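For the sake of transparency, this paper describes our internal protein records without simplification. The tokens are whole numbers drawn from a learned vocabulary of local backbone shapes. One such record is reproduced below, unchanged from the form in which we store it.

. . .
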Amino acid sequence: MIDKYGTYYKAISILLDLFLVNLSIFIGYSITHQTLGYSGADPSLLHILLINFIWFNVTQITRLYNDLFVKDAIPTIRQTLGSLLLFIAVISILLFAIKDFSISGKLMGIALMVFIPLLLFVKIGFLLLRRSRRTKMINYKKVVIVGAGPLGVDLRKYMERNTHLGYRVVGFFDDNPALKSNDINILGSVEECIDYVRESSIREVYCALPDRAIGKINQLMRRADKEMIRFKLVPDVKDYFKKNVMVQLYGHLPVLSPRTEPLEIMINQVVKRIFDILFSFLVIVFVMSWLVPLMAILIKMESKGPVFFKQLRSGKHNEPFYCWKFRSMCVNGDSDTKQASKQDSRITKIGAFMRRNSIDEMPQFFNVLMGDMSVVGPRPHMLQHTAEYSALIDQFMVRHFLLPGITGWAQVNGLRGETREDGSMEERVDADIWYLENWSLLLDLKITFLTIWQILVGNKNAW
């Protein structure tokens, strides 16, 4: 990746955002004190510097300024919102926890109300400007690929699709001339590669040869070093992983992971937990406060037994926890082994109504508040079903990397109810793993909204 102006724009972005921070504080000060001057009393210069320091470090945590030209618009906005949330959280802690903090809550509140729209306006403006001038801001570098097999062809296609990375592939070098075609331009053999790139002033070589050609790879690497040509090796991992992988460096050792997990990042965990606490608290206060006594009366009127039903379910890391529900069945001995089905004789009349409208799941907001569950995540299964499905479906246990949820990506895509149909559980697992790899706060909000919408309009798979 060669950003022609990347370093300059990163510095400009940092300075511009810090300017917006201080401008917002100045506007807040002017409104609070009704003056355009500065008396030096409130806030102190030391605390203004502290706020600047906090914003700078927050953006380093969220990596807001990394890869300005490579990141797409949605990740950029997501990191901006994450930075704002973390910044507001830290400032709030300072205001309420430190008595000597001289900036008033009113001043800081006005400053934040000014800063948030200003920052979003600047970021959106940058994205729009970048969209039209992205290619002009990159210094394209000519490269060649050694190895015209499937791996090399995939690499060229990726570079061609992602022109903002700054590479233009001149051609291939391979010892198999039969691979040459209208689409694959083979410039010569592997041995001729270094001489060609030296004479053509190409300073970078990508090697996509298979592992069995280790001798050729080592020789090519040594010759490239002697000619001061950058050599980059593309390992073939398709036999291990069938999709995108995450690469980390432990010292000089590359470590490959079969998937990206946004919720492995601490800031994302904090954001998701804050959302869970706030949403579940609001539901418990404004809904459960009157729903629990109402459902208790209705459940008790129809059948004997407890109002609530608790059952051991598989939680995060497959640790069991008690999942709470409103009792929707007559008391029976099969509840921990037999899955509910359509026209199930155990389901009471009020239970059928609750299950159709997902009311029986409402007590799980207490599980969310206690930290056993999340608002959004893979649905938890009975322990016996977890053991059965894990033996049948290869990636079934991957979903347990996450806290189980009241609703999830699978549920809003119609994958709920009894899993009698062939392949239905595999589809749910695929949906849960997709959610694990693509989590964002905006995705959680979308799933929550879709769940509420489906409850209002009804779901044919709910019984």
